[in-house]
Amino acid sequence: MRIVIAEDDPLLREGIALLLRAESLDVVATTDSPDAFLAAVDAHEPDVAIVDVRMPPTHTDEGIKAAVEARRRRPGLAVLVLSAYVEQAFATELLAGGPDRLGYLLKERVGRVEEFLDALHRVAGGGTAIDPDVVAQLFTRSRPDSGLDRLTARERDVLALMAEGLGNTAIAERLVVTEGAVHKHIRSIFAKLDLAPTDRADRRVAAVLRYMENTRG
């Protein structure tokens, strides 16, 4: 796994690089600006990019824009975005093009090494990894007409874990229920969100994106 890191805080940038190299992962470049990051993506053709949301010069959304541009230049690039705090608009903007190979974590999650590495490997493997705190805050902002109000508390728990990127087995373990129960909850979620089976749509992805879209500020 070839990794490029874009983070303007030198301590965090080098700390992440040391952590990943200790896990025998190949950090091919560390950068401190969007332009340097995109140049590194072009030069090294990484499998994964770890990108800070707020980067120079304005420290607003340069990281998100750079991540979107990097994926345009290198289709299939996995991107794990780091943010100091929950920024719902950036989470939904990043997911707007589809959730595959995307992650959005709070920086405090980096210190929880197993969780951070799990998210990194999940994203690199083609999945999605959304910070649980981001998911929780998105749910508290759900619009009353979104269809989410029809879900039971347990169904909302299941959908939240789906949004984090967990599969059915992991959801069952987290909620201490059977996989059969998880399947039933997911079928109910699809029905309540009016997501009928089709050959063109992945209902699991559609359910997650529906709730992301309907929880924007």
Automatic annotation (TrEMBL):
**Gene3D superfamilies tied to this protein:** 3.40.50.2300, Winged helix-like DNA-binding domain superfamily/Winged helix DNA-binding domain
Q: Which InterPro entries match?
A: CheY-like_superfamily, NreC/VraR/RcsB-like_REC, Sig_transdc_resp-reg_C-effctor, Sig_transdc_resp-reg_receiver, Tscrpt_reg_LuxR_C, WalR-like, WH-like_DNA-bd_sf
Tell me where in this chain the HTH luxR-type domain is found.
144-211
Coiled coil feature spans: none
GO MF: DNA binding
In terms of domain of life, where is this protein from? Bacteria
Q: Which Pfam families match?
A: GerE, Response_reg
Identify the keywords attached in UniProt to this record, alphabetized: DNA-binding, Phosphoprotein, Transcription, Transcription regulation
The UniProt record lists the keyword Glycoprotein: no
Question: PANTHER family from the entry?
Answer: TRANSCRIPTIONAL REGULATORY PROTEIN NARL-RELATED, TWO-COMPONENT RESPONSE REGULATOR
Q: Which organism is this entry from?
A: Actinomadura craniellae
Q: Name one GO biological process term.
A: phosphorelay signal transduction system
The stretch of residues making up the signal peptide is none
Protein name, UniProt field: DNA-binding response regulator
Q: Which residues carry this modification: 4-aspartylphosphate?
A: 52
Please list the residue ranges annotated as the Response regulatory domain: 2-122
Q: Please indicate if the UniProt record lists Transcription regulation as a keyword.
A: yes
